Every structure is written in C-alpha cells, then in structure tokens.
Amino acid sequence: MSLKEKAVSGLLWSLWQQVSSKLVSFCISIFLARILDPAEFGLIAMLSLFIAIGNTLLDSGLTTSLIRTTDADQRDYSTIFYFNLAGSTLIYALLFLTAPLIADFYNQPLLKNIVRVYGIILIINAFFGVQSTLLIKEMKFKKQTNMQIPAAIGGGLLGIVLAKMGYGVWSLVWMGLCTSFLSTAMHWITSDWRPALIFDKKCFKNHLNFGYKMTLSGILDTVYQNLYLIIIGKYFSASQLGFYSRADAVSQLPIGNISAAINKATYPMFAEISDDVVKLKSVYKKLMQQVLFWNAPSLIFLCVIARPLFHLLLTDKWLPAVPYFQILCISGIMYPLHSYNLNVLKVLGKSALFLRLEVVKKILSVIGILSFIQFGIYGLLYFQLAFNFVAYYINSIYSGKLISYPIKEQIADILPILLLAGAIGALCFLFNLILTNLLIPDLPLIILTGASYAVLYFASGLIIKLQALSDFNQLILKR
After folding, report:
1. 164: part of which helix (H) or strand (E)?
2. In this structure, is residue 246 part of a structural domain?
C-alpha cells in the first residue's frame, strides 16, 4: 500500500472510529440528558480537569514517543506499560487524598465520594495504553473502532438503566467505569502484545527526554481546555455548568471527532515523511483544506439549527444551553487545524518549541480570561471564540516556517472555504427563520435546512472550482 493509500485509509478509519464511537456515546447522552437534571451533568463536569490532568500525567508523552520511535521493541513497550501502571496508581492516590479539597473548592460535598470512585478510571485505562498505542502506530483504526463501539454501548446501557432507577449522578459515574473496563478487556482479548518482566531505565530515560516536554505541554493545554469548566463551576451554579458542558459536548461531536481523527492519523503519517519537507508541506496543505472544508460548514449548520436541535433531542429544559452552543461551534471551526500544526512540530522533534508555544498561548489565555470574567459566561465564551483564531495564528507561524508554508499562504488557501461556508450559512439562517415562522416541526425543519445547506455548499464549491473539493474527489472518490 502506497503512502497516499495508507494515509487516506488511516484517516478515513480514524475519522470513522471517532465518529462512530462518539455518535454512540452522544445518543446515549441524549437519553441520559432527558432523564437527569443539568446540575447532575454539572457535577461530573467539575471533575473534568482532574481526570484529564491524571490522564495527561499518566501518558507523560511517552506513548507519543513510542509512535515516533521507528525501532521500538518489547523493551520499550514493557517499560512504558509498567510506568503507566505505577503512575496511574500514584495519581489515583493523590486524587483520593485531595477529594475533600476538591469538594470544598466547589462547595459540593457529594464530590468527595464521586472523585474517589470515578478516579479509578485512571488505573483501568493504564492497562490498555500500550495496546492502543500499537494500534495507532500501525494505523489499525478499524480494529479500534470494533472495540470502542461495544464498550460505549455496554457502558451507556448501564448508565441509562441506573438513571431510570433513580441513581442520578452516580449513573454517569458507573457508566464511565463500565465503559473503561470493557474497553480494557477488549484490548487485552484482541491484542497479541503482552508485557514482559522488563523495565529498562535507559529506554525510559530516552522516551522521557522527549516525553516530559510533551507532558508539560499537555498539562498546560488540559488546564486551558478545562479552565472554563473550573471558573463556571466555581462562580456560577451547577446548572449553568451543566448547560455549558452539554453545549460543549454537543459541539465537540464534529469538533472533537475531526480533531482527534486528524491527530491520530496525521502523526504517524507525518512521522513517515518527516525527512521530506516538500512532501510534508504538500500533505499538510491538502489536509488543512480538507479539514476546514468539512468542519466549517458542519459547525455553521449546527449554529443555524441549534434551537430546534436542542428542543428535539434534549427537551425544553436544555434550551438555555443554545446560545452557549452557537458560540462554541463558531469557536471550534479552526480548532482541528491545531492538531496537525502541532504534529508538524512533534514529528520534527521540536518538543522544546512546542512547549514554549504552549506556555505563551496559555499565559495570554489566562490574562484574557481574568479580564473577561467580569462580563459573565458570555464574556468568557466570546474570548474563547477570539482566542481560538489567535492560537491558530501562533501555531501556524512556526510550523509554517519549518515546512516553508508561511501564514499568508495558509490563509490564502483556507479563506475561500471560510467565506463560502459563512455565506451559505447566512442564507440558510434566513431560510430557517422563514420555516420557523411557518411553524414547521423541528425534525422537518432541520432536514430541509440541512439539505438546502448541503446542495448550496457543494454546488457553489463546484462552480468556483474549490481546490478542497477537487482534492476530495482525487483522494477519496477515486481511490
């Protein structure tokens, strides 16, 4: 299989893996949202930072180092496995001990026990980290998909049953634990790899020299990604945090899936061609245009049909989340591009530069958040929107220099897509208003608006001969 075929296949399966598993989880969350109160989702959202930091520390950038190491062997894999296992136990112990402090910080006594139970996920996940890394390195995303979907369904069914039985927030806790356990079990059943009784200090040091910078970068990014949850959870009600977290979760269905798929598929692919800057630039350009070609219209369309979508899926009690959702969608248009901007730095071994950029961006972000918090949740959301474009600009300057693809050239390549998606979105917004005034039911309204957007978008793309549409035809339809 050629690099092109391998890259396209890997990207498609990575995207399908993300979309299918997250779509299953999303459908389950819809059932749960109709049963549970926003405040109960808010309680789980309060723990997002602590679990995410735990997972980042657990990884320590070492799995990233494994992927970029072309000659990794059993010694490398076993060393990382035992480190992950010991690290997860230590991190969980710290969470267990600090649970009362977390509960006091949010003034939510129930969080003490939730942290101590929910945190076990960290130890469970440590058992399949290396197996998952091997699948990513070999770009076997189809196999990952076949494990993640059953795990999500199994955990989700348990969560729904417990929610209907009146377990409230604990139904979300046990759903998460069950999903992680099932995923671990299937990785061990289907993987041929088993750890040997080896812990090589030299191997560990080699991976850590690269990985610790990635870890620090990951922690900074994790804190930033969850900073809004912390602030809203601290200074506003649990219900408001629930509205925000649900809006974020729905918006992440396209944003998170595309970003994660791009990150998984492009990192090993970029690693293969890291010595050929010309080819790296060509692949980078095509991917950037493809990502934006699909991501921008998807998110703008969601903005247009946000109210009927929330009314149909989540009922009236979640309608206060609609404006949050619309801002987050626009904010996420550029977000997937960050993934492989940063992947360029990683595959070229620029982990120190990667860390410096993360530090600069996060300092600017914290200053902005502290400045805009006085304007309430909307002040924070609009700052988040603006800063996503600023962050893309900062990332692309340095990655662009490394592959001779300056920011002006990048903007010139993506601007036609942004303008087209925005213009069609404005037309469909007016069309949606007309349908709403005609009292069209939610589902037909969404379908009609979606069909109109798709026809206008693709027809316009063909008329103006959009490069991304031509590339899609060559890369995908004519494989």
Report:
1. helix 141-164
2. no
51, 112: one domain: yes
Q: How does pLDDT run across 124-174, given as a tens digit for each residue?
A: 988 888 888 787 777 676 777 778 888 989 999 999 999 999 999 999 999
In this structure, is residue 261 part of a structural domain? no
Please check whether residues 212 and 70 belong to one and the same domain.
yes
Q: How many CB atoms lie within 10 A of CB 199?
A: 16
Determine the Cα–Cα distance for residues 101 and 98; give it in Å rounded to an integer: 5
Residues 201 and 54 in one domain: yes
Residues 188 and 302 in one domain: no
First to last CA, the chain: 12
* Nearest by Cα to 321 from 35, 48, 52, 39: 39
Please check whether residues 279 and 211 belong to one and the same domain. Answer: no
Residue at token pair 């979309």: 19
* Measured CA distances, 225 to 48, 220, 222, 353 (Å): 10, 9, 5, 20
Q: Tens of pLDDT along 390-444? A: 888 888 888 778 778 888 888 888 899 999 999 999 999 999 888 888 888 999 9
Q: How many CB atoms lie within 10 A of CB 252?
A: 19
- The answer to whether 191 and 134 have CB atoms below 8 angstroms apart is yes
CA distance linking residue 413 with residue 266, whole number of Å: 19
d(CA 45, CA 244): 9
Q: Which domain holds residue 172?
A: 1-223
How many Å apart are CA 24 and CA 17, to the nearest integer? 11
- In Å, what is the CA distance from 178 to each residue of 32, 74, 118, 154, 183? 16, 29, 11, 7, 9
Instruction: Evaluate whether 372 touches 380 at the Cβ level (below 8 Å).
Output: yes
Q: How far apart are CA 33 and CA 28, in angstroms?
A: 9
140-145-151 Cα angle (round to 5): 135
Whether the Cβ atoms of residue 77 and residue 193 lie closer than 8 Å to each other: yes
Verify that 218 and 277 share a domain, yes or no.
no
Task: Enter the tokens of residue 468.
Answer: 């991304």
- Hey, how many other C-beta atoms are within 10 angstroms of the C-beta on 161? 13
446's tokens: 């969404």
């990884």: which residue's tokens?
Answer: 59
| Number of domains present in the structure of the chain | 2
